[in-house]
Amino acid sequence: MAPKRVPMAIGALLALTAALTVAPTTTTASSFAYLNVSPVEIDTTPAGGTSTDTLYVNYATGNRTFDVTHENKGTCLSTHFEEDIRGVPVSFPVSERQVSWNGNTYELKNIHYHAKGEHKQDNQPDYPAVEAHLLHQGPGGAHDLLVLVVLLDVNNSPSPTNSAHDDLLVTPPNECDPAINRNVNLRGLIPTQPASPAQAGSWRYVGSKTTPETHGGSDYWYPVQFVIFKQRQTITPTTLTMLRSRWSGPQFNAKPLTAATPTFSETP
């Protein structure tokens, strides 16, 4: 009897599943993060102990201008889960949007939002409402990335005050529409940072991007340094409703947790 033929679509899915379950045998730059594919559950009692990496946030004070867009990664006829609402810094010097990581300078390229938290603390039953990723690029170029992660809860007070995140996300453009300028308190996008290496508490690990630059892209597999702030910030219910209205399904535009267990470290 001739063997049954597997339909092409199913065959491709089986091949992808096999690729994702067989660990690479080398530790090249592209395979290193493959072992630690983000997002992951946050180890709040990290085996890596106290981090010795130094982080200085050198953002300018006051408002700065961002181009806010619905980042399109498919067609304008449908919204894809790999898309996001993001702000790209414009009209202010690179020197005003930099951080120093272990003595190397990283430039803020964009801040983008996942309409449900992607990382979850191991001691918490629920995900944060929203997760903001401030993506920075270092001297090594497009694959030298540092992401500052801000976990956002909903401000359910009777008259909630807008945060910097609300100011950036207010009435964003629809998919494929032109960008809209927003003036935002740059430093307000992250928890308060003292001017010393002993930064606000954070969990740290090396993982990967959670979405590729292009739909179906392969740039997941490069190492990305994550710094997840312990101190959370807020958004209003109105902002949350707007953000989640762009995507369907329980995950919205958030990638589900992977089974990876990278070594975490922390700062108090």
TrEMBL record:
Pfam families recorded: Carb_anhydrase
Catalytic activity: hydrogencarbonate + H(+) = CO2 + H2O
Domain Alpha-carbonic anhydrase stretches: 32-249
Signal sequence residues: 1-29
Name of the protein this chain belongs to: carbonic anhydrase
Keyword Zinc applies: yes
Entry's EC annotation: 4.2.1.1
PANTHER family membership: CARBONIC ANHYDRASE
GO molecular function list: carbonate dehydratase activity; zinc ion binding
Keywords: Lyase, Metal-binding, Signal, Zinc
Keyword Oxidoreductase: no
Record lineage: Bacteria, Bacillati, Actinomycetota, Actinomycetes, Streptosporangiales
Family affiliation: Belongs to the alpha-carbonic anhydrase family.
Top-rank EC class of the record's enzyme: lyase
InterPro entries: CA_dom (IPR001148), CA_dom_sf (IPR036398), Carbonic_anhydrase_a-class (IPR023561)
Entry's transmembrane regions: none
